[in-house]
Amino acid sequence: MRRTIRVLLIGATLALSVALSAPAMAASGLKLHPSGFGEKSGASWQAGEGRADSKGNARHALFLRKLTATATFAAGVAVVNNAEGLDVAGLTLAWDRRADGHCGAGAPRWNVIVQGQSGASYTVFLGCAGATHTPDGVPPVWFRDTFVFGSPDTVSYMTTALGFTPGQVADIEGGTVQSLAIVFDEGTDVGPGFVYLDNIQVGDKIWTGPMDNGNS
Asked: How confident is the model at residue 214 (pLDDT cuts 50, 70, 90)?
């Protein structure tokens, strides 16, 4: 009898440990993968264009570009791998944006696919223009563009700009991330067709350059 109870307790403890550690494991294993598709479009880390790196002095920035018309089926993309299972509640999504690049309603943007607390699926587009902007006047000028799920600014953006109801916003905030990416698909007809991003943040993970994926 004692052996049976001990086995049951061990099993319950292991199950609880797995349940509690899943979001943390997802956060610790995040990787940022630059990609893209279509004419004159893509994403890549560029040395000498950004702010201080976590290692070395290359000053990387993530360069996203669409050097063609917005109507062209093309985009610069950076996918956040292993984001599945991250809790949405309180999640910070942010970057430093160099002032010479584009900041529109739709690009660069966070594409966040969320499974709500109810089980419903939501696509949340967080466009640069709707972020909270904090300027840094040190030349070249940069802006910190921030969304925080649950903050008044982000809740207001989701209800007014994205059209979610308060109930849907609550369902989203109680859910988990299913996929996450940065997308740049506004072209030269509405702006310069490019942007430089640095210090890209998902939760407590920050990318200053490609080395922050843990690559040698």
From this structure: confident
Q: Residue 63: pLDDT above 90?
A: yes
The Cα 18–Cα 151 span in angstroms is 29
Q: Note the helical H segments in 42-198.
A: 152-160, 166-173
Average pLDDT estimate for 84-94? 98
Q: Three-state SS for 203?
A: coil
Q: How many CA atoms lie within 13 A of 130 on its CB side?
A: 24
Given a contact cutoff of 8 angstroms between Cβ atoms, the answer to whether 145 and 90 are in contact is no
Burial class of residue 187 in the structure, from the number of CB atoms within 10 Å of its CB (0-12 exposed, 13-18 middle, 19+ buried): buried
So what's the pLDDT on residue 140?
A: 79
60-80 average pLDDT score: 98
Which helix (H) or strand (E) segment holds residue 16: the answer is: helix 2-28
Exposed, middle or buried, 162 (CB in 10 Å: 0-12/13-18/19+)? middle
Residue 162 to residue 60: CA distance in whole angstroms: 32
Q: Is 195 exposed, middle or buried (0-12, 13-18, 19+ CB in 10 A)?
A: buried
- What are the structural domains of the chain? 23-213 (2.60.120)
